[in-house]
Amino acid sequence: MSQLLTSAPHRGGLPAPVPTGPVRLHINGETRTLQLAPWTSLLDALREYAHLTGTKKGCDHGQCGACTVLVNGRRINSCLTLAVMHEDDDITTIEGLGTPDNLSPLQQAFVDHDAFQCGYCTPGQICSAQGLLNEGRAHSEAEIKELMSGNLCRCGAYTGILNAVQEVVAAQGEMVK
Amino acid sequence: MSQTDHIGKGPNRVDGPLKVSGTAHYAGEFNVPNLAYGYVVNSPIAKGKVVQVHADEVLALPGVLAVYSHENVPHLAWFDRSYKDLLAPGGSPFRPLHSPDITFNQQPVALVMAETFELARYAAALLRVDYEQEKHETNLETKRTEGYLPGGGKLGYAPPPPPRGNPEKAWKNADQKIEAEYTHGAQHHNPMELFTSTVEWLGKDKITVYDKTQGVFNVQRYLTGVFGLSKDNCRVVSQFMGGGFGSGLRPQYSVFMATLAALELKRSVRVTLTRQQMFSIGHRPNTLQFVKLATNPDGSLASLQHHALHETSLFEDYTENVVNWSGMQYQCDNVKLGYQLAQLDVYSPQDMRAPGAATGNPGIEIAMDEMAYAAGLDPLEFRFRNYAERDQNVDKPFSSKKLRECYREGAAKFGWDKRPLEPRSMREGHLLTGWGMAGGVWDAMQMPSRASARITADGRLLVLSGAGENGAGTYTIMTQIAAETLGLPLEAVTFELGDTDQPQAPLQGGSWTAASVGTAVKNACDALGEKLLKLAQKQKDSPLKDADYDEVEFVNGQLRLRRDPDRAVVLRDLLQASGVTQVEAESTALPNMLKQNGYSLHSHNAVFAEVQVDEDLGTVRVTRVVNAVAAGRILNRKTARSQVLGGVVWGLSMALMEETIMDHKFGRYVNHNYAEYHIPVNADMPHIDVLFVHEDDDIVNPLGVKGIGEVGMLGVTAAIANAIFHATGKRVRDLPIMLDKLL
Ligand code: FES
Ligand code: FES
Predict the structure, then answer these.
(1) What does pTM read for this prediction?
(2) A64, B99, B289, B654 — which has fewest CB within 10 A?
């Protein structure tokens, strides 16, 4: 017994995609004007148009945190926001935090604590941790664990991630004092 | 003192700075010019036929380049063997876009190519495909009596050993016995990185494929077979991989699609799967297990029987070793092990971290806990009483087995001796605490591998082998091995991997990379070392004249005589004085069968877990885990610890969270996303202690390593399940243990 599954033809043809236009973003301190359609997410704008591939795509649905970047200092999932909504915003990606020869304190702490394995969630974890430091909310171990729980790590590097963030939080605490 | 002893220490990952700065390039991050983007369309039905693909509608959209389906795919290889990759099981491999037949839900039926990713996605969403739907069956429960023995298995599959003794009679005659059934649903690997391939078109059917894979040579073999390309025209590259866990062992349909489109469009192409599509590329199979155990009055095992039945697709006999471990884990003279498959309208399962063992281990290890309670024994004491000194499956001694030490050191760290035997005896208000333990065993394997080494006049060493880096730390440990072999600082050594232009390495899996590629790297560096010695001996008044290679050593940048270290040459001086620009060597490493044949080669571990269960809500929190591992020599304590930590997370996940739920009405996985397919987050983490038990083994391979990627996951799931029993008195035999099963 088989059953036919069909759908009605699209009447009058398919709606044409919307054309592109210039979008000005300040990425890692540099002003970039990209030609983007309104349906391009900030994540795809960074990876495919600005060729900044440090920001990762793990789900495209706001479920994993791999795409976390800082917009005006606050951490967001860049897959859940359209690039055109960020005209003139300050966007910091992992590439803006440090370079292999000049790592930021968080990046160095991640290396020292082996807070990753495959490294694919890592830029998101670090941007998230940076946002958390900016927010000034992470004080206890339980707080850090909770506030870092929007970032999945399939390799299970969570212990190292916690220790790396704790180290930087502690160091910054002392600097503030 | 030597500054160039690196093995066994814990240096930071050499690729760490790249990974933390976003400058490590994964497969979807090679932004070659003029890329076209592909988006795959999948079947919404589990069985039937594609009647028509209405490609013309979306082709009318400006910027849509092509729609590929079985209706228009060009003539490709005809024979099954052209599609068989190194890990193909028996049967006929799935051929994407080959015919109108649908054999599983989410089967790819079309590829839409467009100028941008967004446009391809848009067109794919609008593409109308007509289907003729037939009745499917996806429920393993309906196949309980239809299991069959697989024919030829895949690489690494061993059918269960023949029965020994008289297990059924021993079971019947015993006073203390248990019998139980254990199950878990399908699970998906879900590495963080989506499957993606960037195919760079180099003109005239020549391509470079940047693929997410655990084996560049396997992908090259597959693509050359299917598309009739020569190896020279099909280079495959994978320098970094955002996690594999087995999902990248076989070539996935993403690389088929991207290559097809690149060859057809004569253009560079990227195809990336969605998270939803990551549930259509293979899984740990839904499995039913049946265990019977019985003890003698002294607590020794009188009978052990373990049988497993799991799903496979209609077209391949996927196999894994589920029950064999049970026959070697404990001393028992009456043993029967059984293993069967059942065909369902699902995609072929695929090796997933500790394939087979991760399934069979909770089966036997929860059963052992049940048996210990039935016999009135502490579960750890019960294991000591049944300790296997020999592998009875093959009747051979173990090359080394420090499981007893794992038990002892793990128990001491955990404080197991303070455990009351009685369940429900540790309570604080509505929180019940429980302690459980279990152990694991995994193969110590070595595969043939090649590597090359080249030192230049500036004293820098470049080592190559086409292995993989999916997070296990390959770059780092190979750098350590090479640097130590030739007495160099880590900074002077570069190890490169993941390119079919390099010497051939095996698939990155099975925990065999350290042993296989590591030995090849060591051999290549030794071969280079011998050339360097000869070079030194050619010099006038050489202090090493007449020395044999085994009489010299490379330490601190010097080549010197072991018995008289003052007779030395500085490597860099040697290279510069000799006037050569570089010295090169290549070597192969094969397992030493002669040495290994008389032994059973395995790694072991013991895991102790503490849980807290909220009696009112049924919620479980794992609070402490101790994982003691005996896996031979540990090359890098830092990265090895990370692998075991990750293993604990996986075991915890399997115990409490992970399951792909099939809606049998539609024959479709319903929680195919990261929000509903639950894996642990940071807030779920217990305090984890990783112990490496000292274990020397010069039989497994010259490095004495056994690998840790799989064994670190074993024991964890059962230890947690057993701890939950200890906390609540409830025995849950169906994983994952969600709160409804405890209420
Ligand atoms: S890619 Fe944005 S949250 Fe997963
Ligand atoms: S390091 Fe691999 S997913 Fe986090």
Answers:
(1) 0.97
(2) B99
- Give the one of B61, B118, B679 whose C-beta lies nearest to A154's C-beta: B679
Does A79 have pLDDT greater than 70?
Answer: yes
- State both tokens at B584: 């090169």
pLDDT computed for residue B151 by the predictor: 78
Please, is B78 exposed, middle or buried when counting C-beta atoms within 10 Å of its C-beta (0-12, 13-18, 19+)?
Answer: exposed
Smallest CA–CA distance, residue A65 to chain B, in Å, is: 10
How much is the pLDDT for B1? 55
Is residue B1 domain-resident? no
Q: Return the CATH superfamily for domain A98-177.
A: [2Fe-2S]-binding domain (1.10.150.120)
Q: Is A58 within 8 Å of B194 when comparing Cβ atoms?
A: yes
Residues B657 and B576 in one domain: no
Among B590, B608, B631, give the residue marking a domain's end.
B590
pLDDT at A147 over 90: yes
A118, A152, A159: residue with CB nearest B674: A152
Whole-number Å distance between alpha carbons of B324 and B179? 18
List, in order, residues 6 or more apart from B141 with CB less than 8 Å away. none
B617 and B679 in a common domain:
yes
Q: B55 lies in which domain range?
A: 32-135+192-243+248-280
Q: How crowded is residue B228: how many other Cβ atoms within 10 Å of its Cβ?
A: 14
pLDDT at A177: 40
**pLDDT mean over B160-177:** 96
Atom of ligand 2 nearest to the CA of B191: 3
Cα angle B433, B435, B439 (rounded to 5 degrees) comes to 155
